[in-house]
Amino acid sequence: MQPKQPKGHVNYRKRALEHYHDRLHCWYCGFGFSQILEVAHLDGRRENNAVANLAILCPTCHKMLDLGLISKRIVIAMRDRSRIGQWSKRMKDTGKKAAATRKCNVAALQRKRHLAAVKAAETK
Ligand SMILES: [Zn+2]
Question: Which of 62, 42, 59 is nearest to 51 (CA)?
Fold first, then answer.
């Protein structure tokens, strides 16, 4: 026999986990062990169990949200954001930069060798 729930009780955890089944990670930091994830009330009112008011967070981020250390707005933005990184944006000019650095290093090495050779010839 299943334990009875008090009348009017809403299992908001179950509701949130089912509704956001494709986002079972902490929306703020990305932590992904679903067993420890918690469901927070964005407006801080435990009686407001509309899915739009529920957020999936790890215990640390849940506490930070409740203390006002992270904003609801950011949690919502992170909920709706893709978790696929755009590496092409970040790595756009790394090839060119690396080539420039190599060129620079080679030139510096050649200068150094040239000066050493000149000094060696002078002190002969
Ligand atoms: Zn977190």
Answer: 42
